[in-house]
From TrEMBL:
Membrane topology: Lipid-anchor
Gene Ontology cellular component terms for the protein in this record: cytoplasm; endomembrane system
Organism of provenance: Actinidia chinensis var. chinensis
Keyword terms: GTP-binding, Lipoprotein, Membrane, Nucleotide-binding, Prenylation, Protein transport, Transport
GO terms (BP aspect): protein transport; vacuolar transport
GO MF, one annotated term: GTPase activity
Function comment: Protein transport. Probably involved in vesicular traffic.
One matching Pfam family: Ras
Domain of life according to the entry: Eukaryota
Family: Belongs to the small GTPase superfamily. Rab family.
Protein name: Ras-related protein
This protein's record includes keyword rRNA-binding: no
Localization: Endomembrane system
Amino acid sequence: GNKNVQAKLVLLGDMGTGKTSLVLRFVKGQFYEFQESTIGAAFFTQVLSLNEATIKFDIWDTAGQERYHSLAPMYYRGAAAAIVVYDITSMESFVKAKKWVRELQRQGNPVLVTVLVANKADLETKRQVENEVGEQYAKDNRLLFFETSAKTAQNVSELFYEIAKRLEKV
Ligand code: GTP
């Protein structure tokens, strides 16, 4: 059979962690060293075809700057999936990611597919957050976990395919 699923997907996380870059890598296969900071939020769509279903993602890429924090509920409300991004070279961004996870747990949808993403994995020499630390936090909070690089494309399609596979089942 062939099922069509339309799913709202939101990206959350500290400024500069690479939310826009991950989306542009997924949607356009592009990466910019000097990606501009998002104002408010940006909207993208992308379709992924699986064996049994076609998933059409409506993607809300939110702005990480603190002054936009209060807008976030508009974007995660009604979402089927959320990607919470931190930057492996910034412990501060990991702390912020944990705050987003708690906010989603408190106010979000209980069946939300939530993914913790450790981005900028290409910057291994500047790493501040060990892979195991992110992975353990994800496990304790029942989140999917990926280490990615929007720059090299490491794990980016895997991330979105995994979300699509989870959404196919709901
Ligand atoms: P806000 O819109 O401010 O919330 O930022 P953002 O989370 O959307 O980050 P953005 O995609 O704008 O990326 C910030 C900077 O990090 C840009 O200069 C990107 O080129 C860079 N960047 C993003 N992803 C990666 C990555 O995987 N590796 C490296 N080395 N740089 C990255």
